[in-house]
Amino acid sequence: MTETPDIIYTQQFVAANVQYLDYSEREEAVDLLNDFDLETGESNIQHDVDENLAGYLGYTDRKAATKLEDGLTGVYPTFTQDSLNLTYKQHHELADKIREAQKNKSMLWQGVVSFNPDFLERVKLYDPETGVVNQRAIKRAVQKAIPEMLKQEELNVPETFWWADVHLNTNHVHVHIGISQTKNTRPLKFGEPKGTFQAKSLKKIKSIVHREVEDKVSRKQDINLEKKIDELKKDVVDQLKENLQQQQQQKMLEQIWHALPKYKDKRRWRASNNSYDFREAKLLTGKLVDNLLKTDLNQDYEKYLSAIKQKDSDNREKYGQNIPDSIPKKQKDLHDYLMNRVFDELREVDVVSTKSNFSERVKWLGIEGNNELIEVLSKQLKNTKSDIKAKKLKKEIGIRKYYVGILIKENKNKNYLDQISELKEKGLKNNVQDYLINDLQEKYRLGVLQLIPRNKRDNDNKTEYQKLVNKHADVSQLSVKKINEETVAQKNQYLDEWLKVVKNAKDPNVQIYLKNQGLENVNLSEYVDLQKRIMQSKLAIKDNNKKYANNVSLRNQKNGKLFKQLKKDYEDLKNINSKIDLNQTQIRLNQVSNSKNVSRQKNESKSLAKKENTERKSKNSVSPRLLSKLSSALTSVKKEGQERINALRRNLDKEDDFEKQDRIDEIETETGRSMDR
How far, in Å, are 267, 392, 514 from residue 351 at the CA level? Predict the structure, then answer.
């Protein structure tokens, strides 16, 4: 990629003035070969336009900068929409128009199209040996581009006129353009016509000029790349049907259906709907699409993104490094498109066959999705004036927070099991391995017990739970009221034993353990000492609370220093834990990446089989549109029990905006807590 883009366009605006015509015709340099040097390779654009300079017409066609095309005499090099070289009469008429524009205080837009000399040579519009530039091709390209830009700005009216000149007096061939109106038609801003153009208008002139002057081979490559992008997008969309037919995806579709608000006009079920009541369904659908793009559809999706990146790279080479990255917009467009196809089809579904389970929806939405929805619901709660609605919102927020906590614990437990499996598979069988596996099993067991509601734990569970808490709980979570010398002693004993084992960094078991625990590059001795110090401070605070219960002033004085130290230690522990979390997140990302590669290999085989099957049917067959594909994809959702469907529909018609009381009762039974809390 060259440092300088193929084409650059800059523009400014001033009040129209006829003297600019004279300035563009100044006679400093009429010899092209002496004044025009393309070999210097400078990457800057020549800014010949001074903001305070009047008389743009004379400036644009000054003889120092312009030269008539070979074989032409008695005309000006200036060109307009109707003429490639102005006659004396046309030139005089143009000057009259500018005077009229000046009289009516119209705007004058001064633009410069600058060409990279390497680009002009590549497309055979410039011969470095003879110094000849194909002005006619450049002029025709500008004649094609300016009307499109004017149309974009709603300046394609009889009052608008323009002229331009190809300048050859710098190391970059460039075209100076003047645009004005005999009578202003632009909206007024502070009493003056609007001067700025839209960014897309300026991009349009660059793209059209480039398209018109580039060679046929380059243009064909661009067209083929556009076709490739369209085909790859279609491949992603077409695969949606096959994947939605899977049982797992249909379960997700059911959850989405139950979360959809019962609008009278179901056309509001769109990805662009950001209303509160649609947020859950939108998040669920977004997660469905995300899951598919990361797994089963990932192969075609990555090819699609790669093709867009190639197009961005080509455009930056043509138009400059300030061309924005189009990947985020294209990703969002495709994501929204797939979501809308799901919503389109769900509008045709009378009802889904299974009963809505609020807890399943919450769990499936995941930690991120629920946290996002909790934030939305909290804003809604803050703005609501209805006590009834506020109560319902509080219930839903409480339940979602509860399940987020469960999901976090479940993820942590799964992580422990994965770590145990890896140690058994890759570690060295010895006493160290036994100790580390037992350590992870105890942490996993503590996580399992934490998932059991407190009122459902039997006496054995309670004893085991307290023992594991004393040994493995985060010291920052140990309360001052419950801490005692026995628990501190147990924790210290565990920390000493643990440190002795994990300091043996040469053992492969320890290496695996520390990596998975996110403890690589962590000062383990400092980490242990910090935890001990925190517990000792809490124990001292508890002793002071008891010892100086009748002397608040002295108690506060004694505890003041301890709290100050505890605050600092908490901050240090938080920093270490943040580092640990970051390390573990990176490990999970790597695992996802490896999993994605495996999935991609499977998809290659599936895609090849699908392609061969399609080719056997007909070489000229056209794939059905996604809408019809989704229609068949969701047929089985309705097929499993129409009787239950109709019964549930009758119940749903009687429900208010939130879950019915029987659903609330169901959740309370599952969670062991009241939603009213």
Answer: 17, 25, 50
d(C-alpha 296, C-alpha 610), whole Å: 14
CA dist 578 and 585 (Å) reads 10
The rounded distance, in Å, linking the Cα atoms of 592 and 295 is 10
User: What does each C-alpha distance from 400 to 259, 375, 406 come to in angstroms?
Assistant: 14, 11, 10
Question: 24-83: per-residue pLDDT in tens?
Answer: 444 332 233 332 333 333 332 323 232 222 345 555 655 555 666 655 555 788 899 988
The C-alpha atoms of residue 291 and residue 8 are separated, in whole angstroms, by 41
**Span between the terminal Cα atoms of the chain, in Å:** 63
Spatial distance between the Cα atoms of 87 and 93, rounded to a whole number of angstroms: 10
Q: Which residues of the chain have pLDDT under 70?
A: 1-3, 15-74, 215-233, 235-250, 315, 317-323, 349-356, 588-677
Q: What is the Cα 225 distance to its own chain's centre?
A: 23
Radius of gyration of the chain (CA): 36
Q: Are 297 and 243 in contact (CB under 8 A)?
A: yes
**pLDDT of amino acid 1:** 41
Among residues 192, 240, 269, 261, the alpha carbon closest in space to that of 13 is found at 192
CA gap 268, 376 in Å, rounded: 19
